[in-house]
Amino acid sequence: MSDELDELYQEVILDHCKKPRNFRLLEGATRLGEGYNPLCGDNYKVYVKMDGEVVADASFQGSGCCISKASASLMTDAVKGRTKTEVKALFALVHDMITTGRVAAQGVGKLAVFAGVHKFPARVKCAILAWHALVAAVDGAETPVSTE
User: For residue 59, which of 22, 28, 98, 107 is within the disulfide window of CB 3.0 to 4.6 Å?
Assistant: First the structure.
């Protein structure tokens, strides 16, 4: 990535960290996923309102570093209107991108801002934590997920 693109991506991440979108309790949520990273203390609840197999709305609450909060913020925007199957496919693309830096030709959109995270292995778990909680939520899992 070019230095200018890296700088733009950092600005987007900082914006979502400082002013996270969908950072609220979701009234009428039909599913809840919880994620916890015991090493750094990041802890998020992801609320999902399902309409059949479609994510009608999503939000999150909790605390964590800037990367984890920005990831949850962008994630909640990205999954609205997607089916459970599409959410899981997006999770696979994002997980691959965060761990390898490869950006899929189709499908990640604004989430590409996290492509550079793979250069910082200690931050990979931060960027993917809310995604694990989301998958647990759409699957209807009853227990919290952990990055360990």
Answer: 22
> Among 130, 136, 75, 134, which residue's Cα sits nearest to residue 108?
75
Cβ-Cβ contacts under 8 Å for 1 (sequence gap 6 or more): 9, 115, 116
Are the C-beta atoms of 50 and 140 separated by less than 8 Å? no
Alpha-carbon distance of 68 to 128, in angstroms, equals 7
The CATH number assigned to the domain holding 74 equals 3.90.1010.10
- Alpha-carbon distance 119 to 29, whole Å? 35
Q: Looking at the domain assignment, is residue 144 inside a domain?
A: no
Question: Coil, strand, or helix at residue 39?
Answer: coil
Query: Which two structure tokens, joined as six digits, stand for 2?
Result: 């070019």
Provide the domain count of the chain.
Answer: 1
* 105: containing domain: 3-139
Sequential pLDDT tens for the chain (148 residues): 566 657 777 899 999 999 999 999 999 999 999 999 988 899 999 999 999 999 999 999 999 999 999 999 999 999 999 999 999 999 999 999 999 998 876 778 899 999 999 999 999 999 999 999 999 999 999 889 988 7
